[in-house]
Amino acid sequence: MIIGLTGGIGAGKSTVAAMFAALGAAVIDTDAIAREVVEPPSPVLDAIKAEFGPGVIGPDERLLRDALGRIVFADQAKRARLNQLMHPAILKRTLKKIASYPPSAKVVVVVPLLFESGFERNCDAVVAVVADAAVRRARVAERDGLTPEDVDARMSAQLPDAEYERRATLVVRNNGDVKALNREVAAAWQRLLVVPGL
Question: What is the phi/psi pair of residue 41, to 5°?
Fold first, then answer.
């Protein structure tokens, strides 16, 4: 079974993925794969440099994520172009990793842009993690050290929670403490075990 896991920035996808792993899921993190596909030497990195200029590449020839982020989160067209450059390579590597597991495995694939990229086509079920905007802002500011403006730019570039809730098979709410989240994740896992009877 392939379970897509998505949600906005700061919703708690990584925490939920770790909880699913503790329950027996195999977890694939596409953020980690996104970092892999731009490790030099990389045709994806070369394409990004050609598109966005040498200012997004450091002296060690690695991608300067902050510099690229400032460009793409300020311009929707440039963000879409970056996704066009990266998503095919990420998808290819993700599907290869999924195929490495036995058919009996429950594979949770963490995909921030799951609906935007159409990845739900590869999933038997989709779990969306949602949290109040104020909670997410506080988490991201603390975790990433971003300014409020940078946090808002990233949040506004993603789907609203209502859209995640509408399109997901299951929704996990993450406004409380870890114990409350554990209960939500355990309940979602039990429901996933009986798919397709959701």
Answer: -80, 140
